[in-house]
User: What shape does this take?
Amino acid sequence: MKQKILGLLVGGLALAAASGPALAASPATVTVRVEGSSGALLAPTTVTTTTTPVVKDGTHQCTGTSAAGALELATGGNWAGSWDAGFGTYSVERIKGEDYGAFSASAPYFWAFVINGGAADGGICGEELQPGDDIVFYTGCNASSTSCYPFDSSALQATAPATAAPGQPLSVAVTAVSTTFDSSPPYAAHTTRAPAAGAEVRAGGVAATTGADGTASVTLADRGPVTLRVTGGPKAVPYERTLCVTDGHDGFCGTAAPSTQTGSEPPASAPPAAAPPCTTDGHDGFCGTTDTEAAYGFVSSIREHQRFRRHHGPRDLSGRVDADGSGLQDVELRLTRSRHWRHCATFDGTRERFVRLRRCGAAHGRWFSVGDQSDWTYLVPRRLARGRYVLDVRVTDRAGNRDTTLARGRNRVVFVVG
Assistant: This one.
């Protein structure tokens, strides 16, 4: 029975044939995230679905308002799947650089997905989305592993305010969502939600563990956007979202800086609130000043001159960007490889693979964007092979300032594999 249900669930095939084609919904703003075999493959990405159909094989189409439409927008079309005529939906086989091929009962890995923590039972084409839905695609498998989530996994969901006050406890409530199925057709799904005890809540470098009631609190000092990530062991699909730390009038998260703040006087019965101290060098965009300085980017996942053993090259590239008064517009990476100073290549972010360089040297490599988050991360499709690598970070803020100075150990690291 377990393998039978797996065959229905995986790749978004669950119950699609039994329920028939879904009626198209209205466009909705939803969040899409992808958890790959080595962690987050796609950070939480907010998209608004459209009525434009999704056609991956040149023939069959899904509505643009379905889960397929959301995945198409969030990944820029960087996914693939085969059409299953029996279920009337696509079976997801590849997302970005992770390709698990067609599903079979003996396949070690497959792509599964949940919506708001509950197992999707209409297939990627049959699941019509509603405003606010949270869709997570993740690496599934038939046995527990550190690089996938087995059939009996739960999915974590967390509730927390969108903004947090600096220096004040932020309360996070974590729920584990589990789905079971009837043992006979039509295999109806039953979803239960319970407090998740013992889950790790991490944000801005601060971590806490949930108690028996599924709650934990973290106190964040640094202002600006931070990533909230909740993990709960090998049988719990993680939860992740972005929140912002601000006191509401410090220039962060879209708020007005103290010197530009306007409004009516507070009621006579309430004493005027003291404005927090504001520190600026006069041209960094803070405290109402004009931003003429670029934000500093950093590489944190790899150290300068770090050496990796052969077959143990890194996949995860991550780092951070200092707070910027005008906000971030783009974070770009450039990754180049050389061997024996003759065979040189650069990573192509569009094709997600290395391509040969006619001229060696990092300056001839190609830049590619990894988004606009201050805590950035990028997962290369496979472990880096033997060679000498140069990883550069380039940051552009919303005022148009770009950090063009490459400093070893900060936004440039040189490392070796093999």
In short: The CA atoms of residues 166 and 236 lie 30 Å apart. Residues 1-22, 260-270 have pLDDT under 50 and may be disordered. The two ends are 46 Å apart (CA to CA).
